[in-house]
Amino acid sequence: MRILGIESSCDETAAAVLEGDGRAFAILANVVHGQLDIHADFGGVVPELASRAHIRNIGPVVATALAQARVSEGSLDGIAVTVGPGLVGALLVGVAMARGMAMALGRPLLAIHHMEGHLMSPFLAGVTDFAFPFVALLVSGGHTLLVHALDFARYQVLGQTRDDSVGEAFDKGARMLGLTYPGGPAIAQLALHGNPHAFAFPRAMLDRTRHDFSYSGLKTALRTFLEREGAGEVGSIRQQDIAASFQEALIEPLVIKSLAACRTVGAQRLVVAGGVGANQRLRERLTQAAEVAGVRVLFPPVGLCTDNGAMIACAGLRRLAAGARGDTHLNARPRWSLAELMA
Ligand code: KG4
Ligand code: ZN
């Protein structure tokens, strides 16, 4: 089977063509058009600008994906599209495109939950011996989530953030330090030569048995610290130490809680997806801790961890293979929890 996947829930316009039988997959094309240049000056994604950019880019992105895959529209067996969660105006662009194509071609149209897409990343990464069940740590600008993936379409949310996502905390912290957006890579770069133990920033909810996160207290702690003690010159040793210490406080709960979640459900596999999964310090600390705990940790390539159409196509193909008929009249669902998907 061959399927087109469309993703436009946030600031990436993406389309991919995937071929497979529902178990093994081959990515024929995976085109992602980002909007960093549009949002950088604002220090975050501006929804209205995102929607307008999606409108400009969706046609060319889908056309490029089909051309790169060297397939015609008519050879598609289905179309999968992210319907939520995400920015409503952004989602509507992908949904309209997918609906139009599905109607014109007379093919099934599958509504995909964005987070189910992320959960597919290990199966796209070319790791042939990877299987359910596993725990996934999904960390991006929009979400901080621990999920127990028991099987396809059987997901249990173990924990999530009570306030800011970890990516958001990276971005807001970077802004306070006068760094550019996106803040994650900027802080990581500055932290490279800093001392992660120079300053003691708070780690929230480490003592809790639940697997939830909270990052708003840490954000406030950084603001208070900078007001009281100053940030130091840009690029100074002091600023490097602040960045490294702040980064450590962001990462430590992710490491501790991911492994605690594995212990709770008895999982021996852990997958990390989302933009923050690119963080080198997180990778090092998680790899070390997982080794001690006897857990195998998988970091799919960054291009498959961040928003893309291949993960949406993958979830769509699995649903199609499982007998889903699709719905040509589907609509955007900006607020749609993973728990509701299971209900
Ligand atoms: O998954 P993603 O690309 O887009 C969303 O769906 O949000 O994640 C973007 C987030 C941003 O907050 C960015 O600062 C963060 O991922 N990020 C990083 C790194 N690279 C990107 N955070 C920490 N370290 C990095 N190297
Ligand atoms: Zn995402």
Small ligands present: 5'-O-[(R)-(carboxyoxy)(hydroxy)phosphoryl]adenosine, zinc ion
Structural class: alpha/beta
> C-alpha Rg, in Å?
20 Å
Overall geometry comes to: globular
Helix content: 40-55%
Q: Total number of helical segments?
A: 13
Sheet with most strands: 5 strands, mixed
Strand % is 15-25%
**Distance N to C terminus:** 28 Å
The counted number of beta strands is 10
User: Helix and strand string, N-terminal first?
Assistant: EEEHHEHEHHEEEHHHHEHEHHH
Oligomer: single chain
Cross-sheet strand order for the largest sheet: 3-2-1-4-5
Residue-averaged pLDDT:
95
Low-confidence parts: none
Question: How would you describe this protein?
Answer:
With 343 residues, this protein is of the alpha/beta class. It has 13 helices and ten strands. It has helices at 36-39, 47-69, 88-105, 114-119, 121-124, 166-176, 183-191, 216-229, 237-265, 280-293, 302-305, 309-321, 338-342, and strands at residues 2-7, 12-20, 25-34, 78-84, 109-113, 134-139, 144-151, 154-160, 269-273, 296-298. The chain binds 5'-O-[(R)-(carboxyoxy)(hydroxy)phosphoryl]adenosine (KG4) and zinc ion. The site of 5'-O-[(R)-(carboxyoxy)(hydroxy)phosphoryl]adenosine has 19 residues, from helix 6 and helix 7. 5'-O-[(R)-(carboxyoxy)(hydroxy)phosphoryl]adenosine binds next to helix 6 and helix 7.
